[in-house]
Amino acid sequence: MNDQLRIPVLSLRDVHVSIDGNEIVKGLSLDVFPGERHALMGPNGSGKSTLASALAGHPAYTLTGQILLDDQPIHDLPPHERARAGLFLGFQYPVAVPGVQVATFLRLAVNARRGREVPIREFRKELQAAFEALDVPGGFASRYLNDGFSGGEKKRLEILQMLMLQPRFAVLDETDSGLDVDALKVVSEGIRLAAGPDAGVLLITHYQRILNHVQPTHVHVFVKGRLVKSGGPELATHVEEHGYDGLAEAA
Amino acid sequence: MALNASLEGLNRDYTERYGFSDPEEYLMKAPKGLSHELVDVISRYKGEPDWMRAFRHEALDVFLAKPMPRWGNSAMLDAIDFADIHYYVRATDGQGKTWEEVPEGIKNTFDRLGVPQAERKFLAGVTAQYESEVVYHSIRDDLTKKGVIFTDMDSGLREHPEIVKRFFSKIIPARDNKFAALNSAVWSGGSFIYVPPHTRVEIPLQAYFRINARNMGQFERTLIIVDEGSYVHYIEGCTAPTYSTDSLHSAVVELVALKDAHIRYTTIQNWSTNVYNLVTKRAHAHEGAVVEWVDGNLGSKLTMKYPAVFLMGARAHGEVLSIAFAGDGQHQDAGAKMVHLAQNTTSRILSKSISKGRGRSSYRGLVKVAPRATGCKTSVECDALLIGEEARSDTYPTMEVAEQDVRVEHEARVSKLADEQLFYLESRGLTPDQARLTIVNGFIEPFVRELPMEYAVELNRLIELEMEGSVG
Questions:
Q1: Which of these, A130, B4, B155, B421, has the minimum number of CB atoms within 10 Å of its CB?
Q2: Domain boundaries, given as residue ranges, for chain B
């Protein structure tokens, strides 16, 4: 195997996250290699969403340890520089920004990610293709960002953004919650499209359901701020059948 | 990321772009202070008819007798020194019909403000007022041929006395309020517009108001009458040099929309922050008529302005769309009044304000429905955005509804520029500045989309300067 491929696209080294003096994530180390899709499963309150926000640089959290993206440290960078470097966070609850059209916002984001002004025609073409891939009506482009969107529409828009931004690594926080089966299929397909063979994904979820579509290469069980078990796809099936109870004791 | 980091002031390049001043080489500059003698001087100088001179004197008595309002920002109002203001200043002896006829210094000023350029691109007529008098005026020939009158108010009084006498001060009498009285006593300049029946003026008319001298008082008077089934869009802009002493701008604007007429009146107020802007604006909308005030307040020290529509005839519609931007040391006390006097009249108020740093904005509104004005509908929406911990916003809505068969909607929201919105945008690669600007642009979007494109671009540019370089 080519050595180059053995550099993790994302590497977490002894990551601790706290808010207001309370430690929520208590030492997490994880390597995700290009092409891998890792699922992080855990019960409510285990700190999964805190981890996701902290990885993206949310200012409310204090993070210690290291985050390496393509071998470069990003844990000291502000959120926009992490995004420009290729980190993407799919929000569990995407925020509405009234008055800002989806296309206007996406153009700013795409220009930021690529570090150049993408010509408007080129941008429109890409946007059109992304809409088609995700089965999103073209009218989306002129709607206000997440404003008045249904839960499913918001999640589709998150994946659409991911598709346009072509991240190196995507953290998807409960992207499956609130989706019906059809939407779940579309979103899963979008994740597959957006995370190419060289990118990595950390899929944070509560349920086994989306994993049937996305097919993770690795599954981790996260309880009370710690990884308690890691394994292959079969671990997700185990969790689905037996819950977290047996695993939680290890925490 | 901290939101309480104070943002730089609006118009960071104000001094460069608008706040410069010309040397004062004036034909006439009345000494500071207000008196009946001054009123005589102004009226005689203008060669006015007796009725107008008498009107001015009466108005001055009303002004002197009326106490300062005890509502609003009393501390700021009480700081006005009426004895320290020049009430009449004339810079040129004539009015240019081409820019070449305007004295070079003044022409250069308007050049720098972009007025002739705008005129060439998208305006059907322009007046440019400098201090107390209109120094440039033009209107397209095709409009003149259709019988459209667009001139300065003084010329209007001379050339169309019958129309002026019929409507002047009938919408806003001198005794309406202290500042309307002051304007009535010493008014000079402003626009006079008459649009004959069944005539659409498709391209906007514009007036630009410029104060240049220190301690200047500008009191223009505008009267717009749009006859049956006709339409006009009138735009006004204003700026002044930045001085350490205060100036006063106190206009009176009267609009009459006759049966089925439509008036849109757009204002982009961008006075320097030493200007008191105390303005009375009111419209009468007759049967089936539409009056829209599109009102942007960016500059000034204190603005008090509540554009009003009196819905006089059945099915008339009134609308006020406004934004106010209050930075450090500014108080934008703005709002709207809708008075439903006839059946099936409708009105809408959308007021947006942004306060940042130690800026303060107030919404003050009145919706009144008279007895027997059945079937009326009115909706009021006030949105305030606060940027920073010390920014302030107040809402004073008043509803006086004397009729049962009425639909009233009222919604008021105050929001802070939210950390979660910023984080969301930043997590997509937008810098903190870009994120803030995006949120603010989204906030004012419902207003901006009502502006002609050129003004929308200019407004967005001003807002961008506002948000630029804010401490991250």
A1: B4
A2: 16-421
